[in-house]
Amino acid sequence: MEIYDISYLSLVACFLLLVIPVFVSQYLKLGIIQDTVVSVSRMVVQLAFVGVFLTVLFDLNNSIVNLLWLLVMLIMATHTTISDVGLDLKKLLVPTIFSFIIGNFLVLLYFNMFVVNLENLFDARFLIPIFGMFLGNSLRGNIISISSFYDAIKRNENRYLYSLSLGAKKHEAILPYARKSLDLALKPSIANMSTIGIVALPGMMTGQIIAGSSPILAIKYQMAIMVGIYVSTVMTVAIGIFMTIRSSFDEYGILKQDVFKSTNA
Amino acid sequence: MSSELLNYKDISISYGEKKVLSHFDLDIKQGDRILLKGRSGAGKSTLLKMPMGFAHQTSGNLYFNNSLLDSNTVWDARKRIAYVSQDLDIYEGSVDEFIEEVFSYSFNEGKLDRTKLRRLLVYLGFEKDVLDMNFEELSGGEKQRIGIIMSVLIGKDIYLLDEITSSLDAALKEKVANYFLERKEWTLVIISHDDVWEKENVKVVPVGV
């Protein structure tokens, strides 16, 4: 099958479509013109950078460089998680990064070895996009689970202490909150799998089909990637919660107040 | 070695810069009933939370069963001591779900006595369907009574009671106080502004000045 390239001129044609939201915003006084311009510009700059960067990375295709790039992605994901949930970066850095490594990297290696059957497990063309998909999803999961967990346990502080005074061991007192936040974090992934193909065609599959793959091949990849995403998300959020717990509760089983950024004063 | 359960030795408590209690000593033996009295902010609640490890003194030592209470021994202390606070801060779920949760802890497994639970509910004036009610439907006084019942059901013998009758009506205050005071084998440390606790055999200990 033929690949239809998009010329830079056609890309400009595509951006012309943005006249419509501008018009709509103007007409309905939505005030989103400035936001749209900023967002679109950011998208262009970021993707242009990634495009150039990935081209260099793919041409080079050096395993060490590829792994180093994964490390950069990991650090970015960790930083985003912790700053998004309003917790103290230093206290939770190691457990969070650890959860991303175990949850995503192990599943990725398995995936490349047994599913795609790659000769070079660290081939940039597979390593980086697949890791990106795993990481993006487990990042969202980690943000939901960690923020809802610390939120709930702070809000229910007296109830938590009451559980301890009613004979709960530390893990027994914590478990109800951990369970609830993991459930919350995994629900979107589960819902995603059950509606896929009906409500929306996933981006990866669409991309493969447009690029010339047969729909059957695209679907096989999509199934594999969905399972991979689900497994890596489950692993990351479970490890994320239980690893951060180790460093955010004191020996008395009490939540350390200094894990929260705002209470440092 | 003495038969003392809890020894507060030379305890001082500060909140930030503010010193609220200095050089406080108290020895509590099995079967003692102690009523801590003092103005608010004098450190009474902190004294009551210390054996559970929920609050800490600024200086001095607390001994439980003749060993220094620290992050290792606090877990043993929590197995014998019930700490009941004035309000049970629970927002979600039904009363029965919470009871099931508490009795699923390995320490409490198999201890749930539904007959005793029903008897206590009736004694403290509950209709039987309170178990199916959600916590957000309960009043402060009702939550307080559920908290009391739970701590009794667990079957401990040292009770730290922090204003547990504050939201109850006069008849219930009396009932709750009598229930605890009648059990001579229990050790009680009480903070309360209610005079129902001021009975004979209850030793009033002033806290602060």
TrEMBL record, chain A:
**Coiled coil ranges:** none
Q: How does it sit in the membrane?
A: Multi-pass membrane protein
Report the transmembrane regions from the record: 6-28, 40-58, 64-85, 92-114, 126-150, 189-211, 223-245
Would you tell me the Gene Ontology cellular component terms?
A: plasma membrane
Q: List where in the cell it is found.
A: Membrane
The UniProt keyword set, sorted, is:
Membrane, Transmembrane, Transmembrane helix
Q: Name one Pfam family in it.
A: UPF0014
Q: Could you confirm whether the keyword Repeat appears in this record? A: no
InterPro entries assigned to the protein according to its UniProt record, in alphabetical order = UPF0014_fam
Report the family membership. Answer: Belongs to the UPF0014 family.
Q: What is this protein called?
A: Putative ABC transport system permease protein
Organism the protein comes from: Methanococcoides vulcani
Q: What is the lineage of its organism?
A: Archaea, Methanobacteriati, Methanobacteriota, Stenosarchaea group, Methanomicrobia
Automatic annotation (TrEMBL), chain B:
Q: Which InterPro entries match?
A: AAA+_ATPase (IPR003593), ABC_transporter-like_ATP-bd (IPR003439), ABC_transporter-like_CS (IPR017871), P-loop_NTPase (IPR027417)
What keywords does the record list, in alphabetical order? ATP-binding, Nucleotide-binding
The GO terms describing molecular function are: ATP binding; ATP hydrolysis activity
Q: Does the record bear 4Fe-4S in its keywords? A: no
Question: Do you know which Gene3D superfamilies this protein is assigned to?
Answer: P-loop containing nucleotide triphosphate hydrolases
Where the record annotates domain ABC transporter, the positions are 6-209
Record-linked Pfam families: ABC_tran
Q: Which superkingdom does the taxonomy of this entry point to?
A: Archaea
PANTHER family per UniProt: ABC TRANSPORT PROTEIN ATP-BINDING COMPONENT-RELATED, ABC TRANSPORTER DOMAIN-CONTAINING PROTEIN
- What's this protein's name? Putative ABC transport system ATP-binding protein
